[in-house]
Amino acid sequence: MGKSYEYNVCKVIENKKISEGIFKLTVEGKFEAKPGQFYMLRSWDKEPLLWRPISIHNISENSIEFLYQLVGDGTKFLSKLEAGDDVKVVGPLGNGFNLDEIKGRVAVVSGGIGVAPMRYLVEGIKKHTEAEVEVFSGFRDEVYGIEEIAALETSVKVSTEDGSVGTKGFVTALFDPKDFDLVLCCGPEVMMYNVIKLCREAGTKIYISEEKKMACGIGACLVCTCKTVKGNKRTCKDGPVFDGAEIEI
Predict the structure, then answer these.
(1) What's the pTM?
(2) CB burial class (10 A; 0-12, 13-18, 19+) of residue 60?
(3) Looking at the structure, do residues 145 and 73 belong to the same domain, yes or no?
(4) Which residues lie closer than 8 Å to 108 by C-beta, 6 or more apart?
(5) 63 to each of 14, 50, 193, how far by Cα in Å?
(6) Which of 75, 81, 109 minimizes the C-alpha distance to 194?
(7) For residues 214 and 70, what is the distance between their CA atoms, to the nearest angstrom?
(8) The domain containing residue 122 runs over which residues?
(9) C-alpha to C-alpha distance for 94 and 235, rounded to whole angstroms
(10) Is the pLDDT of residue 23 over 50?
């Protein structure tokens, strides 16, 4: 599968553990992408066979940042990268959030590692729209990835399931969709589907960024399909951002 990719070999600037099982990888290079798009990464030769899809945390003038969770062999290899090491990068891939459709009062809602693409999204909204943004992030216990969002002069409210930080409970208790014109969401599927239900009841428009296991990242293998009212869609090619009204829950 590796031969089918036109990839760039980039140098690692930093690969930092920021929380238990959570890493931030900074890679050198010139990158352009829309918020919500992703890259396929690989830092190993043979096994595992598949590349790993990682969402964009931030893009600077000469680098890109990926916030990722250690969940298997591929991300274990990524977590071992050090400054100066090579990493193969393919992208940007998928369809991101359409900034032209982001208007009015906007709630950016994330759960767990779903916070990863939200920093770049919030920056894009603030730079390219006149929308008013509030961020709501839920975690199991340890909190990560929100300091950089707060640094964008954005309101950030946090919940943890154990109550160690912020409000105790789920992120869905932090906001009311009726108070917003639009909700943008990323996180565990159960959490996102609960947010979709709340938005449907409130009559509030919602877009979600699906997180699925991917094999090819380019829409060829049909591993990452999700169910919509228009039939099965490929998360990597048709998404990962979908109109919540189209998602079957």
Answers:
(1) 0.90
(2) exposed
(3) no
(4) 118, 121, 122, 125, 133, 134, 135, 136, 183, 184, 185
(5) 10, 24, 33
(6) 109
(7) 16
(8) 99-246
(9) 8
(10) yes
